[in-house]
Protein backbone atom coordinates (compact mmCIF):
# COMPACT_ATOMS: atom_id res chain seq x y z
CA UNK A 1 0.00 0.00 0.00
CA UNK A 2 1.14 3.52 -0.79
CA UNK A 3 2.44 5.59 2.10
CA UNK A 4 0.73 8.79 0.92
CA UNK A 5 -2.67 8.53 -0.73
CA UNK A 6 -4.88 11.15 -2.31
CA UNK A 7 -8.55 11.04 -3.20
CA UNK A 8 -9.99 11.59 -5.68
CA UNK A 9 -7.32 11.01 -8.33
CA UNK A 10 -9.27 12.90 -10.95
CA UNK A 11 -12.11 15.37 -10.58
CA UNK A 12 -14.13 17.52 -12.95
CA UNK A 13 -16.23 20.22 -11.36
CA UNK A 14 -18.04 23.41 -12.32
CA UNK A 15 -17.27 27.01 -11.45
CA UNK A 16 -18.66 27.93 -8.05
CA UNK A 17 -18.79 24.42 -6.62
CA UNK A 18 -17.12 23.55 -3.32
CA UNK A 19 -14.85 20.58 -3.48
CA UNK A 20 -12.50 18.80 -1.09
CA UNK A 21 -9.32 16.94 -1.87
CA UNK A 22 -8.16 14.47 0.75
CA UNK A 23 -4.74 13.22 1.73
CA UNK A 24 -3.81 10.41 4.09
CA UNK A 25 -0.41 9.11 5.13
CA UNK A 26 0.86 6.06 6.97
CA UNK A 27 4.44 7.31 7.37
CA UNK A 28 3.83 8.76 10.82
CA UNK A 29 5.15 12.14 9.74
CA UNK A 30 4.13 15.33 11.51
CA UNK A 31 4.58 17.66 8.55
CA UNK A 32 2.14 17.76 5.66
CA UNK A 33 1.88 20.02 2.62
CA UNK A 34 -0.40 20.85 -0.27
CA UNK A 35 1.04 21.97 -3.62
CA UNK A 36 -0.32 22.70 -7.02
CA UNK A 37 1.59 22.15 -10.25
CA UNK A 38 0.96 24.07 -13.44
CA UNK A 39 2.85 23.70 -16.72
CA UNK A 40 5.91 25.93 -16.81
CA UNK A 41 5.54 27.04 -13.19
CA UNK A 42 6.77 24.15 -11.11
CA UNK A 43 5.20 23.20 -7.80
CA UNK A 44 3.83 26.00 -5.64
CA UNK A 45 2.99 25.67 -1.96
CA UNK A 46 -0.63 26.29 -0.98
CA UNK A 47 -0.73 25.39 2.73
CA UNK A 48 1.39 23.44 5.16
CA UNK A 49 1.00 21.99 8.63
CA UNK A 50 3.70 20.94 11.08
CA UNK A 51 1.31 19.21 13.46
CA UNK A 52 -2.40 18.87 14.12
CA UNK A 53 -2.68 22.29 15.75
CA UNK A 54 -0.47 24.11 13.27
CA UNK A 55 -1.70 25.46 9.91
CA UNK A 56 0.24 27.92 7.76
CA UNK A 57 -0.40 29.69 4.50
CA UNK A 58 1.94 29.05 1.64
CA UNK A 59 2.73 31.05 -1.46
CA UNK A 60 -0.73 30.82 -3.06
CA UNK A 61 -3.37 30.22 -0.35
CA UNK A 62 -6.09 32.55 -1.68
CA UNK A 63 -9.20 30.60 -2.66
CA UNK A 64 -8.16 27.56 -0.64
CA UNK A 65 -8.61 26.32 2.91
CA UNK A 66 -7.29 23.27 4.75
CA UNK A 67 -8.12 21.06 7.68
CA UNK A 68 -5.71 18.83 9.61
CA UNK A 69 -8.14 16.34 11.10
CA UNK A 70 -5.44 14.07 12.52
CA UNK A 71 -1.73 13.51 12.19
CA UNK A 72 -2.42 11.27 9.23
CA UNK A 73 -5.00 13.39 7.39
CA UNK A 74 -4.78 16.78 5.69
CA UNK A 75 -7.62 18.01 3.47
CA UNK A 76 -7.65 20.83 0.95
CA UNK A 77 -10.88 22.64 0.10
CA UNK A 78 -11.78 24.93 -2.74
CA UNK A 79 -14.67 26.94 -1.36
CA UNK A 80 -15.87 28.18 -4.74
CA UNK A 81 -13.91 26.65 -7.57
CA UNK A 82 -12.81 28.81 -10.51
CA UNK A 83 -11.26 27.75 -13.83
CA UNK A 84 -7.76 29.00 -12.98
CA UNK A 85 -7.68 26.46 -10.15
CA UNK A 86 -7.46 23.77 -12.81
CA UNK A 87 -4.16 22.07 -11.98
CA UNK A 88 -2.45 18.97 -10.66
CA UNK A 89 -2.53 18.96 -6.85
CA UNK A 90 -0.02 17.10 -4.73
CA UNK A 91 0.00 16.32 -1.04
CA UNK A 92 3.36 15.68 0.61
CA UNK A 93 4.66 14.64 4.01
CA UNK A 94 8.04 15.02 5.64
CA UNK A 95 10.01 14.46 8.77
CA UNK A 96 13.35 15.90 9.76
CA UNK A 97 16.44 13.79 9.27
CA UNK A 98 19.36 14.15 11.58
CA UNK A 99 21.43 17.09 10.50
CA UNK A 100 18.32 19.01 9.50
CA UNK A 101 17.89 17.57 6.02
CA UNK A 102 14.29 16.91 5.14
CA UNK A 103 12.84 14.71 2.44
CA UNK A 104 9.32 15.25 1.22
CA UNK A 105 7.26 12.27 0.09
CA UNK A 106 4.50 12.98 -2.38
CA UNK A 107 1.13 11.43 -2.99
CA UNK A 108 0.15 10.39 -6.52
CA UNK A 109 -1.65 13.67 -7.22
CA UNK A 110 -5.19 14.79 -7.97
CA UNK A 111 -5.91 16.10 -11.43
CA UNK A 112 -8.61 18.80 -11.12
CA UNK A 113 -10.51 20.40 -13.98
CA UNK A 114 -12.80 23.34 -13.25
CA UNK A 115 -15.20 24.14 -16.07
CA UNK B 1 13.50 36.70 -11.23
CA UNK B 2 12.36 33.21 -10.25
CA UNK B 3 13.69 31.93 -6.93
CA UNK B 4 14.91 28.71 -8.54
CA UNK B 5 15.66 28.72 -12.24
CA UNK B 6 16.27 25.83 -14.57
CA UNK B 7 16.52 25.43 -18.30
CA UNK B 8 13.30 23.56 -19.15
CA UNK B 9 14.93 21.75 -22.09
CA UNK B 10 14.12 19.27 -23.44
CA UNK B 11 17.56 17.72 -23.49
CA UNK B 12 17.59 14.95 -26.10
CA UNK B 13 20.58 12.63 -25.72
CA UNK B 14 21.52 9.14 -26.97
CA UNK B 15 21.87 6.21 -24.63
CA UNK B 16 25.26 6.18 -23.00
CA UNK B 17 25.75 9.93 -23.17
CA UNK B 18 26.73 12.14 -20.28
CA UNK B 19 24.38 15.03 -19.61
CA UNK B 20 24.51 17.89 -17.13
CA UNK B 21 21.79 20.14 -15.77
CA UNK B 22 22.33 23.39 -13.92
CA UNK B 23 20.09 25.32 -11.63
CA UNK B 24 20.47 28.74 -10.00
CA UNK B 25 18.82 29.95 -6.81
CA UNK B 26 18.29 33.46 -5.53
CA UNK B 27 18.24 33.12 -1.73
CA UNK B 28 21.79 33.09 -0.41
CA UNK B 29 20.48 31.96 3.00
CA UNK B 30 19.23 28.62 1.65
CA UNK B 31 20.85 25.66 3.35
CA UNK B 32 19.29 22.54 1.85
CA UNK B 33 19.39 21.49 -1.78
CA UNK B 34 17.90 18.56 -3.61
CA UNK B 35 17.25 17.02 -6.98
CA UNK B 36 13.87 15.37 -7.42
CA UNK B 37 12.79 13.28 -10.38
CA UNK B 38 9.29 13.42 -11.83
CA UNK B 39 8.02 11.00 -14.42
CA UNK B 40 5.23 12.09 -16.74
CA UNK B 41 1.96 12.56 -14.86
CA UNK B 42 3.46 11.12 -11.66
CA UNK B 43 4.54 12.51 -8.32
CA UNK B 44 8.04 13.93 -7.71
CA UNK B 45 10.44 11.61 -5.92
CA UNK B 46 13.71 12.46 -4.24
CA UNK B 47 16.68 11.60 -6.44
CA UNK B 48 19.40 12.90 -4.16
CA UNK B 49 20.28 15.59 -1.67
CA UNK B 50 23.10 17.93 -2.60
CA UNK B 51 25.87 18.47 -0.09
CA UNK B 52 28.44 21.24 0.05
CA UNK B 53 31.32 18.95 -0.83
CA UNK B 54 29.47 17.38 -3.73
CA UNK B 55 28.13 13.87 -3.69
CA UNK B 56 27.72 10.91 -5.96
CA UNK B 57 25.16 8.13 -6.17
CA UNK B 58 26.03 5.62 -8.85
CA UNK B 59 25.82 7.35 -12.22
CA UNK B 60 24.54 10.59 -10.66
CA UNK B 61 26.76 13.37 -9.32
CA UNK B 62 25.49 16.52 -7.65
CA UNK B 63 27.54 19.66 -7.04
CA UNK B 64 26.83 22.84 -5.11
CA UNK B 65 28.53 26.18 -5.68
CA UNK B 66 27.42 28.50 -2.90
CA UNK B 67 29.41 31.47 -4.13
CA UNK B 68 27.66 31.43 -7.49
CA UNK B 69 24.42 30.03 -6.07
CA UNK B 70 24.11 27.20 -8.50
CA UNK B 71 23.56 23.49 -8.30
CA UNK B 72 24.36 20.90 -10.92
CA UNK B 73 23.38 17.33 -11.68
CA UNK B 74 25.54 15.14 -13.89
CA UNK B 75 24.21 11.88 -15.29
CA UNK B 76 26.77 9.49 -16.79
CA UNK B 77 26.03 6.59 -19.13
CA UNK B 78 22.41 7.69 -19.67
CA UNK B 79 19.76 4.97 -19.76
CA UNK B 80 16.37 5.04 -21.45
CA UNK B 81 14.87 4.85 -17.97
CA UNK B 82 16.51 8.17 -17.05
CA UNK B 83 13.97 9.96 -19.27
CA UNK B 84 12.04 12.20 -16.90
CA UNK B 85 11.83 15.76 -15.61
CA UNK B 86 14.46 16.71 -13.04
CA UNK B 87 13.42 19.28 -10.44
CA UNK B 88 15.93 21.45 -8.65
CA UNK B 89 14.69 22.12 -5.12
CA UNK B 90 15.97 24.55 -2.49
CA UNK B 91 14.76 25.23 1.03
CA UNK B 92 13.32 28.65 1.63
CA UNK B 93 15.84 30.09 4.03
CA UNK B 94 18.37 29.60 6.73
CA UNK B 95 16.07 27.83 9.19
CA UNK B 96 14.69 24.44 8.40
CA UNK B 97 11.12 25.54 7.92
CA UNK B 98 10.36 22.64 5.64
CA UNK B 99 9.29 25.09 2.96
CA UNK B 100 10.82 24.06 -0.33
CA UNK B 101 11.05 26.09 -3.51
CA UNK B 102 10.84 24.05 -6.70
CA UNK B 103 12.28 24.90 -10.07
CA UNK B 104 10.06 24.29 -13.06
CA UNK B 105 12.12 21.27 -14.03
CA UNK B 106 14.42 20.19 -16.84
CA UNK B 107 13.12 17.50 -19.18
CA UNK B 108 15.47 14.75 -20.31
CA UNK B 109 14.72 12.41 -23.19
CA UNK B 110 17.18 9.56 -23.68
CA UNK B 111 16.94 8.02 -27.14
CA UNK B 112 18.02 4.52 -28.20
N- to C-terminal separation of chain B?
Answer: 37 Å
Query: What share of residues of chain A is helical?
Result: under 10%
By oligomeric state, this entry counts as: heterodimer
Low-confidence stretches of chain A: none
Spatial shape of chain A: globular
Number of strands of chain B: 11
What is the tally of helical segments of chain A? 0
Please identify the structural class of chain B as seen in this structure: mainly beta
Q: Beta fraction of the residues of chain B?
A: over 45%
List the secondary-structure elements of chain B in sequence, H or E.
EEEEEEEEEEE
Largest sheet of chain A: 7 strands, mixed
Q: Give the chain pair forming the largest contact, with residue counts.
A: A-B, 25 and 22 residues
Q: Tell me the fraction of residues in β-strands of chain A, as a range.
A: over 45%
> Shape of chain B from CA axes?
globular
Write the layout of secondary structure elements.
The complex is a heterodimer of chains A (115) and B (112).
Chain A: E1 4-7, E2 10-13, E3 19-25, E4 31-38, E5 42-51, E6 54-57, E7 64-70, E8 73-78, E9 87-96, E10 102-106, E11 110-114
Parallel strand pairs in A: 2-11
Antiparallel strand pairs in A: 1-3, 3-8, 4-5, 4-9, 5-6, 7-8, 9-10, 9-11
Chain B: E1 4-6, E2 11-14, E3 19-25, E4 33-38, E5 44-50, E6 55-57, E7 60-65, E8 70-75, E9 84-91, E10 100-102, E11 106-111
Parallel strand pairs in B: 2-11
Antiparallel strand pairs in B: 1-3, 3-8, 4-5, 4-9, 6-7, 7-8, 9-10, 9-11
Written overview of the protein:
The complex is a heterodimer of chains A (115) and B (112). Chain A has 115 residues and is mainly β. Chain A has no helices and eleven strands. Chain A has strands at 4-7, 10-13, 19-25, 31-38, 42-51, 54-57, 64-70, 73-78, 87-96, 102-106, 110-114. In chain A, strands 2, 4, 5, 6, 9, 10 and 11 form a seven-stranded mixed sheet that branches. A four-stranded antiparallel sheet of chain A has the order 1-3-8-7, with no helix packed on it. Chain A is globular, with a radius of gyration of 14 Å. Chain A starts with a strand and ends with a strand. The relative contact order of chain A is 0.33. The mean pLDDT of chain A is 92. Chain B has 112 residues and is mainly β. Chain B has no helices and eleven strands. Chain B has strands at 4-6, 11-14, 19-25, 33-38, 44-50, 55-57, 60-65, 70-75, 84-91, 100-102, 106-111. In chain B, strands 2, 4, 5, 9, 10 and 11 form a six-stranded mixed sheet that branches. A five-stranded antiparallel sheet of chain B has the order 1-3-8-7-6, with no helix packed on it. In chain B, β7 (60-65) and β8 form a beta hairpin.
